[in-house]
Amino acid sequence: MRTTRLFRVIAAALFVTSAAAATTVATVTVAPAAGAATNLPTCNLSSLANHRGIVNIAFWESASSANLKVLQGIASAFNSSQSKVHVTLVTQNGYDDTWQKYTAGLTNGQLPDVVQLEDERTQEAIDTGSFLPVQSCMNAAKYSTSDFLPRPLAYWRVNGVQWAMPFSVSAPIVYYNENAFTKAGLNPNGPPLTLAQMVSDAKALKSSGSGMGLVLDPWHLETWLASANRLFVNNSNGRSARATKAVFNNSTAVSIFSQLSQLVRSGDATTNPSSGPDQYDNLLGIGSGKYGMTIETSAALGTVTQLLGSGQYSNVKLGVGPFPVYSASVRGGIEPGGGGVYISSKVPALEQAAAWTFVTYLMNTQSVATWAAGTGYIPVRKSSTQTATVQQLWATEPGYKVAYNQINNGVNSSATAGSVIGPYADVRTDVLNAEISMYTQGVSPSKAVSTAQTNVDQTIAGYNSRL
């Protein structure tokens, strides 16, 4: 789920007892996209090897609360581990703030050596021409990615080039009150596994006095399409060539919108916006008993865990389940979300090499394990899951394993890797507006999907024409 949502989650304290059954892990190799670039810029690692003295670099990141403390610990450990590079964390007020400052820096020259950017900024970041693909440094260092989970790695690979390293990777999961499920006659250890089951469970919950909280989030359509292995935009979701139009106006999308429309218009689910005074209703509604389940980002688990023991929500025994896929008979997968780590091409070669040194430490087995255990983000290295850090976490808090399992389940394809779109934020607004029209204006699901695709096509065309 878009990790900007994490800052909403931090403000909502829920008493959590995470519980979910483990799912089978299936790892599939992802082939590089066709037309991979062969003439990459140089990553001059020898510049650091031949340098005497410490190289200072700045890492712009968007962590907060518990996540920031974990990242500070990793940065401190890196600085103490060697004497060539010193990294300074520069915390921004969220992904949007980071992007605004970065684009301003392209004019005023105030740029970081390393920066954490949200998933939806991938194509925009590439279009600035201001980043050194991490692929260049991988090639220079003969760096192996065989230990990384294929799907998160694939998200930041465009046209065969790895532009960024997957770092703060998350996925949507179901948070539900086991007590509400029991009251509704549902299995408290069996959260809904499909969209149809979610609609049915919401009806049962509503009949017993609760219901479902549903944030108005356009990202839902993309996720359910990915779970059905259906593309969102053309050119392999913008991975083999620049996306030029949407391709989601099909029976699958209409079915998704139809089921969501039924869910909301029946009153079995109540929507709330992702900003403003009602932005926390889906989460706080579980605490108050108003809702029996909702969908939220797995990135919230670290902060929620820190709030355990408050005793504020004694009526809640919260379970954690995987995102309900479109259909159990269709083999797709859950697309990753979150942030990737980029290296600037606007800084000297020496600082680029130093940045790569830090990035490799940030992404080593133990750092990834530490980051995942302290935050709820998905461990993106297979070896990290075998560390005592993660094994102990999963044993005591099985909810942390849910997102990891679902990122490994299903097929790895262009559809499940997620979309790469230049005007991504505007595209998602187009989809959201169509979804709201269906809920509030009686627009049919088929018309809402058709209108969304038409508007998305215009948005993408407008962006591409300005390049």
What does this structure look like?
By secondary structure, the chain is an alpha/beta fold. The chain is built from 21 helices and 13 strands. The protein has helices spanning 6-9, 46-49, 65-81, 95-108, 122-127, 134-141, 150-155, 178-183, 195-207, 219-227, 234-238, 251-265, 281-288, 301-306, 349-362, 365-375, 388-396, 399-408, 414-417, 424-440, 445-465; strands spanning 55-61, 85-91, 114-118, 131-132, 157-158, 161-162, 165-170, 172-177, 212-215, 269-272, 293-297, 318-322, 337-344. A hairpin with a 2-residue loop joins β5 and β6. α3 runs antiparallel to α16 and α9 runs parallel beside α12.
Topology at a glance:
Layout: H1 6-9, H2 46-49, E1 55-61, H3 65-81, E2 85-91, H4 95-108, E3 114-118, H5 122-127, E4 131-132, H6 134-141, H7 150-155, E5 157-158, E6 161-162, E7 165-170, E8 172-177, H8 178-183, H9 195-207, E9 212-215, H10 219-227, H11 234-238, H12 251-265, E10 269-272, H13 281-288, E11 293-297, H14 301-306, E12 318-322, E13 337-344, H15 349-362, H16 365-375, H17 388-396, H18 399-408, H19 414-417, H20 424-440, H21 445-465
Parallel strand pairs: 1-2, 1-3, 9-10, 9-11
Antiparallel strand pairs: 3-13, 4-13, 5-6, 7-13, 8-11, 8-12
